[in-house]
Predict the 3D structure of the following.
Amino acid sequence: MFRWKENPFTFSIIPSLFVGYEEQQRDILASIESGSKFSMITGPTGSGKTTMLRFLETKAGGTIVKYLPKPPRNAEDWIEVFRDIAKPRVGLFGGGLNIYNLPERVNKRLGKDSRCCIFIDECHEATQESLEWMRTLTDQMNNLSIIMAGLPVFEEKMKSSLETLLRRIGSRIALSNLTRFEVREMIKRRIEHHGGDDIKPFTPEALDYVYERTAGFPRDVIGLCNGLVLKAIERNISTIDTDFIEATQSAPPKAAADRIRELPRKQLSILDVLAEGDMTPKEVAQKLTAGEYKTRITAIRAVNNLLKRLMDEGLVERKSLGRSYKYGPSFLAKTLMVKA
Ligand SMILES: Nc1ncnc2c1ncn2[C@@H]1O[C@H](COP(=O)(O)OP(=O)(O)O)[C@@H](O)[C@H]1O
Ligand SMILES: [Mg+2]
């Protein structure tokens, strides 16, 4: 309907669509440029760390660059990171590569002029051992810059365990939110990249709403836009304006879903049992965990009470079966149980 080649609002990482965080970008690039050994990017999940690393990777010109989605775990992993750089020209340096001869070989191959930038994601997962190797290796290698990204806990972790490494960090930046203008720019670039036109189908007011609802947090911006676009497609609406948003965002089903999640444990276990098929209270009582009630009679009485409460909530329906009744989940309960 919007003549897009693909949905622009997915969480895939497209470095060329990176916007904003300009001061932070300049900080990091200047720090790499000036030869500092470490830089650190922190931010919560969805703030744009991975996107920023992949974007910086394309900016660090004239250097050997590498992106590691996870930190190396131990010495062997670190050797693998540098193996292709340290690889001897035919005939030179015999003998295998190990963690002790690695820095010298990398230095020889890099020479005086070329630099090597390693971008490491998810650094909060790094072991103490790995970080210590990182410090040792960068101490002994010339022209090496490591740019680490991780959750904010990473910085805390370093404070308590590797103060020496933390002190050597040239640039330390935090990612959080984009500005109103950057949010618009981000949405526009995504739409145009996927074959659309400017901010269509959104109106400027709709983008204001997106900014206000998400405070410019990148992952939330994408999630909200995706939800709105899907609803528009579903209803065959070609303009997402504030009227459309108002009509779709008031979502009672969510409140109902919460109601199921907050149900007392006993009522919830009855719904679970009923998911197998309609049953009489006696059958439900038999299915419930043995030992839950003292006698069969008290069990059936309790089940009857719980079923009545669930009926009041509209979650259970009763079907007449001659002289007895069978109970089953209502349509509402069935839909909610799938989502919950
Ligand atoms: N500055 C930005 N410009 C454009 N898109 C961004 C930006 N920051 C984040 N995004 C988008 O938001 C989503 C989450 O970003 P991501 O880099 O995966 O965050 P993190 O690695 O911090 O969890 C991705 O789809 C990404 O493309
Ligand atoms: Mg990430």
Q: What stands out?
A: The mean pLDDT is 87. The longest strand covers residues 144-150.
